Amino acid sequence: MRVALSERRLVSSISKDRIFADVQNICRKFPCRTPGSKAEGETAEHVATEFGRAGLSNVHIENFPITSWNCRRSNLQVVSPRSLVLKSAALPYSPSCAKLIGDVVDVGLGYFQRDYEKKDVDGNIALIRWCPWDITENKTQYLRALQNGALAVVFYNEMPKRGIRIFPITETWNFGFGPGKQPSRPIISISYEDGRLLKHLLRRGNVALKIDVDVDVRQMARSHNVVGTLCGTKWPRDVILITAHHDCWFTGANDNTSTVAVLMELARVLSKAKPYRTVRFISFGSEECGAQYFSPWFWINGSRQYAARHANEISNNVIAVFNGEDLGSDKKFVVETSGPELRNLVHRVMKDLDLTCKYKNKNALDLTPISSDHYAFAIRGVSSVCCTGHPPGRPYERYHTTTDVPSALDREVMRDFAALIGTSVLRLANSLFIPLSLSHYMREVIEGNSSLRLLGLRDHARKAIEIVDLHEAVLMASSLKNVSEALDRIQNDILVAYERSVSSRDQLTINRIESCAKRINAQRVKAFKNMNKLLFRVVGYGKPGINPMIYLAQVVPGLEATEELVHVYRSLKFLQAEDVPSARKELEAIYPYADLATRFRLTCYPPRFVPGYETLLPSIDVSTNLNSLDKEHRVSGEELSRQILLLATEFERCKVQVEHEKMKLCLFAFWSSRLGEAVEEGRVLLSQIHKSFNSVQREHSPHGN
Fold this sequence. Notes:
Layout: H1 5-13, H2 16-29, H3 38-53, E1 57-80, E2 84-86, E3 89-90, E4 97-106, E5 125-129, H4 138-147, E6 152-156, E7 187-190, H5 192-204, E8 208-230, E9 235-245, H6 253-273, E10 277-284, H7 301-309, H8 311-316, E11 318-325, E12 333-337, H9 340-352, H10 355-358, E13 363-367, H11 375-378, E14 383-388, H12 411-430, H13 438-447, H14 457-463, H15 471-504, H16 507-532, E15 537-541, E16 550-554, H17 562-576, H18 580-588, H19 594-600, E17 608-610, E18 615-617, H20 623-628, H21 637-664, H22 667-700
Parallel strand pairs: 4-5, 5-6, 6-7, 9-10, 9-11, 11-14, 12-13
Antiparallel strand pairs: 1-2, 1-8, 3-7, 4-8, 8-10, 12-14, 15-16, 15-17, 17-18
């Protein structure tokens, strides 16, 4: 698609120097913008002022309650074998402690129980290397140390020359939305270099540390969301959100001052573009932590509060959300979307702006994770995008560290992200028909996406052919895809008629087409919101404290259990034939999941659940069955009968759940009918336009009479 003149003007007016100057200004004036702090409130006022200067209307600040945690003092001192003060930071939500003294025990990773074998941690201070594959697993490391009686925990950064890293911890194994518990033991973080120093001292003998931490916890503190609106000039009821968060740890240049600066720059340049649809700019507070009562899901509080407070508008008016996170990383360019409808739009914009070639092998188009503010809208069905400067699941090296400073940012990357978001929003705002393709969406629902390693409905149908009949669901999905393709063709024909009407200044026809487009757009957006609550969802795997927690995006999460059903069904057949080794082999394919390991190179265990809500999805946990069907021993006839009964019961339970999930797919038939009506309305409109056009042609023809 050719880049429109308005889009070229927008891109050319974006200034990377202005963006970087905003980053420097905010970091210098308002360092350590922890949620609920004075600095966070002052930052909100600053952003509101800049929104007003950019020409946004109805600029205001919305306050909301949080549990704030601020560290007033964090001291760590080696008292034996020699006196030495180490730079340190208390991890949120560490409790206070007054001059706690204890011996240090190096437990290495401290993630598995085996790390504590022959280590006398009880009553001592555990020294732990930060988890290298997922920094959020520091909670598992802390809780494992707690299980072994640690008096306190000292983490050291796993990366050299990256300073001190922090990340909040609650004393609960899960990550749900409900209330949690503040850690009961002090948690301190030090640099990689100081961690190596302590390990060096430990090789020579005992090492004792003194920890002194003073924190301020307020259960009813206030955080702030800053909102500014650029009213649409033609279709103001349709709303597109551009979002960021302004709270941070330490200086927070990349996370997330970089995006706040991009947000302010886009407010300046888009206000001059005068988009047809309304664009709302929001800078959220309390993204890093602040959920009340130490909720295990401590992040994205400002966005969740906004989504709850404005639920009616989000349901009826918001078309899409464009969120930014860490936009100044070193030449990384990643776009994560809630589904294919926005992924295709953003991909086209990237190609039009030559960003695909520029960031070849350094950009990715992936499904949205749960780690930033867009997720608060994605779980409500809103089509969402998160632009970020690091690959999925791998935060950049300076993430949440003392080295996240302005000098480490890449100005050009920030400018390019601003161009991508601004152009995508402008294209979405100015198009007669909202450019979110339902036909592409349904094609991926049916066929999956091999490049993203996603299984589609047809894949599940092939897998489950002997267990669950998904043929009707595939037919309904195919019908909706066909209707969507027909709607695409009708829209293209209407667009031709619209352009002809605009050139001839036929205002009556223009009004009729815009009225029809408005109704079709509304139906399509409702369809996406309805289906996004069921399809293209992030799914959690594993039991906290037992298995590593893995989060994957899947097309039809409710049908992923067809894999268990097939293997358990075959295992039952083998057990009935007293073939225990073959039965075990079938069960081992789903504990852990062999298919997911092949596709994603990740070790995933049951159960499946919806992150945040912790709602369980269909799955079968066969771990106890595998323990009972020990491959090294002969299984008695009584035990064999017992295992057959247990597996058969679990099989029937899971099958009923999968059948229930299958029934939810009847929404395909509903939307086929509704959008079929839109197709018919478009055809009638085109027929009327052609008749009117032919009539005008005859009137102006010299032989018209």
